[in-house]
Amino acid sequence: MKSLPNILTSSRLVMALFMFVALAAAAGAVPWVSDQLTADAQLRLERWAFYAFVIAAVTDFFDGWLARKLDAVSVWGAILDPIGDKILVCGALLGLMALGPNPLVVLPAGLILFREFTVSALREVGAGRGVKLPVTLLAKWKTTLQLVSIGAEMVLASWGAFGLPQEPSMIGGFTLVAHGLLWLATLVTLITGAQYWEAARKALA
């Protein structure tokens, strides 16, 4: 049972990879596969990608909760968990941009990717010098905001795949919500990035 949290974390990596490949294939970016897809198959891939994203996002909560509940916190889990989060977020953003670049999505997506890679680099440099950058409460909320907003953007980008109503008012309202959440997540992401940068600067000075 104590291996269950790490199994969930590992499954998040697998589902994140599947999600990205499915979105890339639906967007026509996978050679020899996308060319053979029918319109219905592309829509199914978009739905499967979203379902994989949701399941992977849920495991982000349960793996940590189970690790504490089962007293199974491990070094391997502590390493895999943030990696799984970043791969899921980055893979989903890249998949979204493959489906069709949206000016209101590209900029926040780029800023989120920039922050995630920068913080990962800071952690690596800090670890090499014995400096730890613990996850803050705001950073945990950041991850939740990212996952919720990206999920909303995936639904918006694959609206037709879910057979949702084509009423302009409904689409317009959902668009505002999805983009608003993404920009809010981006703001919190940048704030936490600045906090980590300052903490690293002081620790490595």
Identify the CATH architecture.
Answer: Up-down Bundle
CATH class: Mainly Alpha
Main sheet characteristics: none
**What is the count of helical runs?**
6
Please specify the SSE layout and strand pairing:
Blueprint: H1 4-26, H2 39-69, H3 75-99, H4 103-128, H5 137-157, H6 168-204
Task: Write up what this structure looks like.
The protein has 205 residues and is mainly alpha-helical. The chain has one domain (4-204): Four Helix Bundle (Hemerythrin (Met), subunit A). It is built from 6 helices and no strands. Helix 2 (39-69) packs antiparallel against helix 5, helix 3 (75-99) runs antiparallel to helix 4 and helix 5 runs antiparallel to helix 6 (168-204). It is globular. The termini are far apart. 34% of the residues are buried. The model has no long low-confidence stretch (mean pLDDT 88).
Structure keywords:
205 residues; mainly alpha; Four Helix Bundle (Hemerythrin (Met), subunit A); 6 helices
Summarize this entry quickly.
The protein has 205 residues and is mainly α. It has helices spanning 4-26, 39-69, 75-99, 103-128, 137-157, 168-204. The chain has one domain (4-204): Four Helix Bundle (Hemerythrin (Met), subunit A), CATH 1.20.120.
